[in-house]
Amino acid sequence: MIEQAFPEITNNEIILNIEDFKSAGFKSLREYKDVEEVPPLSSAFHGIFKKMDYELRFYGNHQDALNQGSEDAKLVTGKDSIVTGDVPWEDGEKDRRRCSRPPGQPHSGCNYTSKYGDFVIFENVIVMCEGKDTLESRNTCSNLLSLLITTP
User: Fold this and answer.
1) Are strands 97-100 and 27-32 parallel, antiparallel or unpaired?
2) Can you name the residues that pair with 99 across neighbouring β-strands?
3) With CB atoms 3.0 to 4.6 Å apart as the test, which of 6, 29, 77, 98 could cross-link to 138 if both were Cys?
């Protein structure tokens, strides 16, 4: 069912860049500068599309995204993600979390959770998509990435 929303891995041997996403309507809000701290990452951006948040991490090729990129993304997405404290990469830390409060909890009490319920590996890009769980995140991914799907 989740794979129907959008597949976890897409590889048509296409190399994408931020301009491809901007052409599809993605609005880049911030480019992360310290990408050398997460090799072999080449660039990373936080932005929005249709009022939903995304983090795009660009690699030189699909294999780098699949290997190292997916390991890094697993740490900061989903229910058991690391979003405060000893985060794996500080650049963009605040963009990757949201304040979640149980009902009846005062405004000062905040449990930080990941803004991104899941991620996909789309060509040479790790795409983290806003959502409370995997299915919602994959649907969010589909909204943007379906505009980029081409055949080789």
Assistant:
1) unpaired
2) 112
3) 6
Cβ proximity of 76 and 128 under 8 Å: yes
In contact, 97 and 82? CB cutoff 8 Å: no
Cβ atoms of residues 95 and 46 within 8 Å: yes
**Lateral strand order in the sheet of 9-10:** 9-10, 116-122, 125-130, 52-59, 41-49, 27-32
Instruction: Give me the pLDDT at residue 101, please.
Output: 66
Residue 12 in tokens: 């048509």
| pLDDT, block means (10 residues), the chain with 152 residues | 77 96 97 91 97 97 95 90 73 81 66 90 97 94 88 45
CA torsion 64-141-28-132 (nearest 10°) is -110
Instruction: Give the separation between CA 1 and CA 135, rounded to whole angstroms.
Output: 8
State the CB neighbour count (10 A cutoff) for residue 77.
25
pLDDT on residue 113: 82
